[in-house]
Amino acid sequence: MPVGFNPDDMQKLDEVVATRRRVKRGGLLFSNGDPFTSLYAIRTGFFKTCISREDGREQVTGFQMAGEIIGLDGIVSDYHSCNAVALEDAEVCVMPFANVEELSREFPVLQRHVHKIMSREIVRENGVMMLLGNMRAEERFAAFLLNLVQRLHARGFSQSELVLRMTREEIGSYLGLKVETVSRTFSKFSEDGIIEVKQRYVRILDPDALKKIFNPQTFY
Amino acid sequence: MPVGFNPDDMQKLDEVVATRRRVKRGGLLFSNGDPFTSLYAIRTGFFKTCISREDGREQVTGFQMAGEIIGLDGIVSDYHSCNAVALEDAEVCVMPFANVEELSREFPVLQRHVHKIMSREIVRENGVMMLLGNMRAEERFAAFLLNLVQRLHARGFSQSELVLRMTREEIGSYLGLKVETVSRTFSKFSEDGIIEVKQRYVRILDPDALKKIFNPQTFY
DNA sequence: AAAAATCCTTGATCTAAGTCAAACGGCCAC
DNA sequence: GTGGCCGTTTGACTTAGATCAAGGATTTTT
After folding, report:
1. Residue B57: its chain A contacts at CB < 8 A?
2. Which segments within chain B are labelled E, that is strand?
């Protein structure tokens, strides 16, 4: 949460996030076409957001964990344009967007915070465009693992161990790859001694190798 | 510009966009690493935004035309993370972000407007992720042409004729394709009687064919 | 505990798009 | 005008990743 608030401010801020909502694993927090009312701050659990076309093709647009905000897609048209699916039992803070806007007007720090969250999402998606448009399977996968473990580490988890909350298929959808390719890349990295994999559990044995695959230039 | 303002309000709004800036073809409006100060509303001209990696690979993240806003990438870190290049002589309104935020607090309509612009960009990028992750060269290209002509039409230009402001290479970079593939797709569509091409000039002869390539489901 | 349904892996083959190469056509500078 | 430089096109060939297929492992349901 943003800094620079006094206790009185905190009181008001609390009002915005008063209500909570639980979503079971596999459940939808919102889906394409739902009227937009609120942003959601993830308290616990793990989500994916995805869009799907009439022809059935799906694209996972992101994976979100505790502390991250989902629902920004709904602001522009007052309807959500993607699905938010819980990948494990989750709890979110419901933040009615009208309240967010009202308090933003009152507290510049909050306003700035909201703007940064949206800008961060834009920049993240720029990076995904680079991944999808220019990079090879192994590079995408290395980037994915590094990003995931970095975000987990920022939340107090290990830098080297993680338990994947998503299937190979979902990883593939996010990275623009088919399940088989994801599976082969897991195997390849495992054979090369870069990671150790047992189902959803992954241990990163050689983070530098991953970074090198993602961006060889930084090691010269 | 948003509706719901009285003349007094307009006065204040004008202050935010008081300064203008010209950028010559090929010139940079801002580039990666520049301190972020302002958003830019395009008055005339045409831009591309792109990010580049140390290894030289480039990804065009968007093409922007009159009325569109660029610079949102800078909000999150106070530094720009992409380059904005004018593809033809251009003029922009410089909107210092501090002013934008200040006036947003005063005018809920403006606040809402800013939020929608950012959300629209997020949703647009979601769509690009679908293009890059799931769609084939012809589908991407059809989507690109339809999107471009639709935006031009909204600005009073023809629904069927356009002059491309970008090179084949830049189109390819945006769509995750190589120049040769872009060129071949132009030729293919031309042979199929879907478009007529002469250099940068493109005439869409069969818009339904394009829509069908982009999304066959809508025609059943 | 058995059955069913997913999810994951691996091998063999195919293909869309990339790469390499060459030539052409505008356009700008001189 | 003409010479050089991009940007573009087209052809021949290669390849990364997709597709197809089958089997094995885990989790969920009954």
Report:
1. 130, 134-135
2. 19-23, 28-30, 38-52, 58-65, 69-70, 83-96, 161-163, 195-198, 201-204
Residue A98 CB contacts under 8 Å (≥ 6 apart), including other chains? none
User: By C-alpha distance, which of B75, B217, A214, A175 is closest to A184?
Assistant: A175
A109: nearest CA partner in chain B: B101
CB contact under 8 A, A126 and B53: no
Please state, as a whole number, how many other Cβ atoms lie within 10 Å of the Cβ of residue B15.
11
Q: How far is the CA of B196 from the C1' of D11 (A)?
A: 23
Q: What is the pLDDT of residues B155-170, one digit of tens each?
A: 999 999 999 999 999 9
CA distance B15 to A171: 47
The pLDDT of residue B15: 74
Rounded to the nearest angstrom, the minimum Cα separation between A121 and chain B is 7
**Residues in contact with B48: Cβ distance below 8 Å, sequence separation at least 6, in sequence order:** B60, B62, B63, B64, B84, B85, B87, B166, B170, B174
Give the distance, in angstroms, between residue B65 CA and nucleotide C18 C1': 31
Task: Report the relative pairing of strands A58-65 and A201-204 from DSSP bridges.
Answer: unpaired
| B5-to-A145, A204, B2, B95, B106 alpha-carbon distances in Å | 49, 56, 8, 18, 12
CB burial readout A89-110, b (16+ within 10 A) else e: ebebbbbbbebbbbbbeebeeb
A140-176 as b/e: b if 16+ CB within 10 A: bbbbbbbbbbebbeeeeeeeeebebbbebebbbbbbb
Does any strand C atom come closer than 7 Å to the Cβ of A208?
A: no
Strand C–CB B183 distance below 7 A: no
- Which segments of chain B have a pLDDT < 50? none
Q: What is the pLDDT of residue B3?
A: 61
Which nucleotides on strand D sit less than 7 A from a protein beta carbon? 7-12, 16-21, 26-27
Residue B137 approaches strand C within 7 Å at CB: yes
Average pLDDT score over chain B? 93
Q: Using the CB atom, is residue A200 less than 7 Å from strand C? A: yes
Among A73, A74, A126, whose Cβ lies nearest the Cβ of B51? A126
Could B59 and A128 be called an inter-chain contact, meaning their C-beta atoms sit closer than 8 Å? Answer: no
Per-10-residue mean pLDDT of chain A, 220 residues long, equals 63 76 94 97 96 93 96 98 96 95 94 97 98 97 97 95 96 97 97 94 95 82
